[in-house]
Each structure stands twice: as C-alpha cells, then as structure tokens.
Amino acid sequence: MHLLTMAGWVAGAAVFLALGACQTQEDGDSLELTLTIDPSLIDQSLLTGTPCSPPCWYGLQPGKSTEAQARSRLKDISFVDPASIVTSESSWVDGRVASFVTFGCRSPVSRHCGTLTLVEGVLVEIGIPILYEVTFSQTVPLLGQPDHFFVQPVSVERTDCVAGLVWKDRSVLLMTDTLIGEECDTLREAGSLTAQSTVSGAIYGEEGTVPPHGGEDTPWQGFSPP
What we know:
The chain is of the alpha+beta class. The chain has one domain. The protein has helices at residues 2-11, 25-36, 45-48, 67-76, 136-143, 182-190; strands at residues 80-91, 97-105, 112-119, 122-129, 148-153, 160-167, 172-175, 179-180, 201-205, 218-219. Strands 1, 2, 3, 4, 5, 6, 7, 8, 9 and 10 form a ten-stranded antiparallel beta sheet that branches. Strand 1 (80-91) and strand 2 (97-105) form a beta hairpin. The radius of gyration is 16 Å and the shape is globular. The termini are far apart.
C-alpha cells in the first residue's frame, strides 16, 4: 500500500495511483490558475523553508509529531480545506496498521494538497504534491547534494515511470510527474535527471529512514546534459 500511496499522489488523485504521461490542457489550466491564487493559499514551503525546512512541514515532524498534533495543525494551515480531510486505513510497510489522512486545497477546491501517514499514534510520513513550477536544480542548493537518483515503474506494463532524487540524511524524496516510453528509457540510460526537470511531488520521512520507492537507486553524479 505504501508504494501505491507514493505513486498515487504523483497522480494528483485522492489516493494517487496513476498520472497522465504528458501535461494535458487541464494541467495547463491548473498551472495558470495557480498564478491567480492568493499566495497564502499555495504551499511553497519546499522552496522557502517557511515555517520550517524539509522534512519538517508546517511544524509537523515525521517520527516526532503525534497524531493529535498532526490533526490539530492540519486544520489551522491556511491553504488546507478542513472539509476535505479524510482518513482511511491500510497497512504500513512493516505490516502495522496505518492511517492515511488526505486533504484538499481551499483553492481550487478540487485539488489534492497532501497526505499524512500515521502509525501507532505517530506521524511517520508526509506526502505533498508540488502545485507550482519548481525545478530539481532549484532544490539542490536548498537541500544539499542528493544521495541517489531512481526511476520507478508506475504501471504493470512498465511503459510509464516516475523518477526522482533521494536525500538520505534529510529523509526527503522528490519526484517528477509521470513519464512514458522513451522518456523513461532515456532517464535510465542517462542515470540522472536534467537540471530543468520539474518536481511534481515530495515525500518526507522520519529521521533515519529513507522514503521507499519501487525503483533502483543509482548514486548521484550530478545532472545530465539537457
């Protein structure tokens, strides 16, 4: 379930499982709409480090924040629609029961804004879609040099994928939008992303753990040529 959750919010659906291979007109409309939204209703914490830097998110720290703290804080965040908060249960990677708390944005109302994963009353993971344009090259100066690059198949047919970078010490994983066919093959051959590849989602884990994914880790050797 955990890997499906990860692939899922790349998709931008309520429980994120798959995403279109290319940007659709609807995606473009969404990006244009972002530009007109009040800045307080857009989560830009990945770039600003405000109010805290990853893997902390709006005062919530994986591995430290309690379920009560997470639920209370979520209702106070300006861009979160309290009416959209939904909890479902499944199993965590180690077999324990996990609660997945998904929540939507205030504006536009239909957008998914993130997922909190709770196990035994403790926040263990935060998943957020990046709803404005951020390149991987913008994140490296903020987070430091990543440890690994990965390409993860999304579907059984393995014709589509997501790719991303992992910061082990920070327990942070950033990923691309869903790619297909030759794009995936090109990334596997290059063993890296280009500097201008855009970030579609982020996962923050608890200290000492690396947010798992379904791809093979390749040591980071810098961005590939465009």
